[in-house]
Amino acid sequence: MLFEEVKELFTNHNILFQDHKLRRQSEPLSFFQAICHAVSGSTRKERFKTDAAKNYVLKTLDFLLENGLINEEMIREIFHEEKAVKQFVLHAFTSISSKAEFRILKHCNKLTEHWYWPYLNKFYQVLGQEEKDIMDLTFYEGRFSSKGEYELKLNYIFVGDPHSFPLEKYFHQLKNLDKSNHLNSHGTKNNHSGHLQSSDYEGSEKEMEEIIKQLIYEGCCNIHFVNTGEYETYLADAINLFSFMENKMYPGIIKKLLNIPEFLNIMHKYLGLSEKYENPEELFQLIKCWSQIRTSQEMASHYEKMSRSNKIELKNVSWKKDIYDGYLNQISQALHQSAEIYDSISKRKNEVLSSIKCPLKDIYENAPRVLTKMKNVHFQESK
């Protein structure tokens, strides 16, 4: 009973404002408003803070788990409910933002792979891979759905009308693809390149079409870019989201995405290409590599900076150079992959490379020099 009440309090925390006096002090923030409030740097006068209440609720979850009053499976079940997951994603992000001084990146890796993830609430550490995947999917989709709201000059998580994109409807595919891959690894014959049986494949095809229709076709009708940075943010978020879906849920969805003229136009405009390139997947992968370079550069620099911080919130963090070096390895790998794509494009149509002009290309061209400099940084490792 207590567990259900805690869960209800967390997912529907506006009941905290049913008291007339509290409601006069401050209305509860929506998911979107809370993220905007967190990244804008603005202050809001209020006597009763929902974030503080939410943190106490989550500490209660930790207490129940640590004392055996609830088990790990009960925790995992919560992460299969979209409404709850959105709140957990918001909490994890805002905790990382405040405790690790981490303003959300324009380009971002998985939320669950951030270096501060192990230092969040204890119940996060009992999540299985499926629950982590659900969190990352929710995070990526939330970022992409913010594409029409660029006035803050920062990207952020956005979840508006819960009926606009039924995210929970697709959670099952994270389990289905993993199961089919597991069966295939044990010699069971599957169709569609070894991933899915024919009935599952037909259902996946329909779901992929639904996803692209809602996120791309309908989304492009409501977006108006005014500068190169907005194209870049849109593409980085799209590439992160659809690459995640390709690897974890829907093999082949990137190919379908690259058949959409509206998306291809955005990609070519950002790269400064006036003519359509015959193999758009190479352009897609090139932007993905360049985005990874930028992300890893920012993550490495931030991690190195935080290793020298005296913030009390970081006193229990164990600083390891191998984490810092891991970001540098990601840069090296992305540079290598970019070089391979460059070689392939040059063989097809060499003039395409000289025509590409965008900020990410500049970052790519400077990356070898920056990487050398980063390797010479003295990292403040924990003893």
Automatic annotation (TrEMBL):
Superkingdom assignment: Eukaryota
Record's protein name: Uncharacterized protein
Organism of origin: Puccinia graminis f. sp. tritici
